[in-house]
Design brief:
By secondary structure, the protein is an all-alpha fold. It is 55% helix and 1% strand. It is built from 12 helices and 2 strands. A two-stranded parallel sheet has the order 1-2. Helix 2 packs parallel to helix 7 and helix 4 packs antiparallel against helix 6. The termini are far apart. The relative contact order is 0.14.
Length: 328
């Protein structure tokens, strides 16, 4: 997909580069293209090159700048209006956790963008199966079918990638940083090791090289993916569904490690024998925030944690006691 890059080019980077390298200081080569009808909004102001644009619309690439903007907007709104701040008093909530989650995200995303850049470049250069107008679809109904197809394909791939990241030889090196947050906040949604985050994003980028995908649909799906990733970390257990892998299912994954690897559905966890139904207590605020439930969770967590990770190196420092007065 090529959609945020052109917006940034048009309204920010073109001005920046024009200031740094004024047109008068550049000697233009007189190259003529056979067809410039696909030139983008910003490129029509420049001397044509022999490389054709891959779209007739704005070239909007879902860049990491855009990704960070979506992350902060969605996470902040969720943190203040959805996330239950009573979670701060949970025994497994870390000292300065929100700050640590944001720090991990900010350190990882630039590196992830480097890994992702070659795939973006191939998309922009037109090597994928991205198409502009709905009329360019293989058939009319495909404009609707591309959405469930994208969800099904990425759900399958991410299940196996995520499950692979829990292999003992890989987990401690790559995936453990994300499991540092046993009681995650919305800001933990993108707090990965860079290789971990990139590996789980590969299916999203591979899809348009295998299947046709309309470019604006790609942007919409990009926003939806980021929104969904925040949603399953917000601790608000609305969907008690056997099909949807919502926040409750993903909370079970953070609490008990080796369950519920799916991204959108529980299908592959059920087929792969890794599904764990969320505890009934999670769907009542009184019970999910009760001392008895937290003690039961902590006991099981520590048993599984010892098996999966060994000694616990997280820094709690009685953070829950310090914050208790703020919440109550």
């Amino acid at each position: 997909m090529d959609i945020v890059l052109e917006v940034f080019d048009t309204f920010l980077f073109d001005t920046f580069w024009a200031t740094v390298y004024p047109a008068s200081s550049i000697t233009h080569h007189k190259t003529v293209t056979k067809n410039t009808s696909t030139a983008t909004f910003s490129s029509i102001r420049e001397t044509p090159t022999s490389i054709h644009s891959s779209t007739q619309f704005f070239q909007l690439q879902p860049s990491r700048i855009f990704g960070l903007a979506v992350y902060f907007v969605c996470s902040t709104l969720s943190y203040y209006y959805v996330f239950d701040h009573a979670t701060f008093t949970h025994p497994k909530y870390l000292k300065n956790q929100v700050r640590l989650e944001i720090k991990q995200t900010m350190l990882s995303m630039p590196i992830m963008s480097i890994f992702t850049a070659p795939l973006f470049l191939l998309e922009v250069r037109g090597y994928g199966k991205l198409y502009d107008a709905p009329s360019d679809a293989p058939f009319a109904l495909y404009n609707f079918l591309q959405f469930p197809l994208f969800i099904c394909f990425t759900d399958l791939c991410i299940y196996w990638i995520h499950r692979g990241l829990h292999h003992p030889l890989i987990y401690k090196r790559l995936h453990k940083p994300h499991h540092k947050w046993i009681m995650p906040t919305p800001f933990a949604s993108h707090a990965f090791h860079p290789l971990d985050g990139f590996s789980q994003s590969i299916p999203y980028h591979v899809f348009p090289f295998i299947f046709p995908l309309q470019k604006l649909a790609y942007v919409a799906l990009f926003v939806f993916i980021n929104f969904w990733t925040v949603l399953i970390h917000d601790g608000e257990y609305v969907a008690n569904s056997y099909v949807i892998n919502g926040a409750a299912c993903h909370t079970m994954h953070h609490l008990y490690f080796n369950y519920n690897y799916g991204q959108f559905t529980t299908l592959w966890d059920r087929l792969g024998g890794s599904y764990r139904q969320p505890n009934d207590e999670l769907f009542s605020r009184e019970s999910k925030m009760s001392k008895i439930e937290w003690e039961r969770q902590t006991k099981e967590i520590e048993k599984l944690q010892k098996e999966v990770e060994g000694d616990d190196d997280r820094d709690y420092e009685q953070e829950s006691r310090r914050l208790r007065k703020k919440v109550t």
